[in-house]
Amino acid sequence: MSLKWIPLANNMISKHFLKSFTTICNSPEPNLANAALLISTLEYPNLDVSKSLNQLDQMGIKALRRLSDSTSDDPLTQINLLNDYIFKEEGFKGNKKNYDDPRNHLLNAVIERRTGIPITLGIVYIEIAQRAGVRVEGINFPGHFLLRIPYRTGAADTVDTDLIVDPFNAGSILSETDCKLLLQHNLGTQTIFDRSSLAQATKRQIIIRILMNLKRLYIKTRFFDQGRTIIDLLLAINPSATSELRDRGLLAYHLNDFSAALRDLESYLRFTSQREDQLKNSEYAEIWEHIKTLRRRVANLN
Fold first, then answer.
1. What's the burial of 197, exposed, middle or buried (CB within 10 Å: 0-12/13-18/19+)?
2. Beta-strand relationship, 137-139 and 146-149
3. Out of 2.30.40.10, 1.25.40.10, 3.20.20.70, 3.40.50.720, which CATH number does the structure's domain 204-301 have?
4. Where are the domains of the chain?
5. What global pTM score does this model have?
6. Residue 101 in contact with residue 5, Cβ under 8 Å?
7. Which pLDDT belongs to residue 277?
8. pLDDT digit string, tens, across residues 242-254
9. For the residues 46-55, what does the mean pLDDT come to?
10. Fold classification of 15-202 (topology level)
11. HSE of 269 in the Cβ direction (CA atoms, 13 Å)?
12. Residue 225 pLDDT level (bands cut at 50, 70, 90)
């Protein structure tokens, strides 16, 4: 099936959708696939979520069979078998030719097209591995989502270390030096590597990263209404994210929704004005100028 991306027509999200999404994201152990597919339904309103979940289930069953056929339970062997299945047999790959294709961010499209960006391919990997009985964790590595598989040899004379896997590059296993080079490639040669950047990402953090990626993409391509929709979801998950409140207000301003823009920007300044460092901040002054303009516009509408 050929999936054509059509951007959201408007900023309407039902209360039922918001409640379902927030419930999943704020649960003790969010279901990554369900959350990602809910996001996909914003772009594909007629999406059959159960079909995508069934595809993951079937791949998980096949992956389990490949692992069961092996006589070794060594984590490195398991990862090599998973890599062979996911990237060679199923044909998943990083979309290096068209990285900014919006479909790379939508799990259903990634499953159908077998191509995506690091985080969506990482979710596919996590979900298949989970169904095959292998624990895989996400890593919110700067600029490039990675995976970690706990590696415990059990040998007394060895130092246990985790396997770092790159889902965008056919599951290649990265050393710490590889991670340093990857960081510098993404953020510049002067960037200092910190091992804390390899910390496990919670599933909630992974979902937020998906939304942040979509938000940046929509704003970059000037789909401001769609960007505001994504910010609605970010604020539903984390109402204290004041920077999202600011950005939603600015997008509403661009969309000539002056009442909504005024409401968000006034709320933003109420939060930030409690911090003394904000009072002389140039951003604060700029937002205040926007508010004064918006107050005049809203008054003229009444």
1. middle
2. antiparallel
3. 1.25.40.10
4. 15-202, 204-301
5. 0.89
6. yes
7. 56
8. 999 999 999 999 9
9. 96
10. C8orf32 fold (3.10.620)
11. 21
12. very high
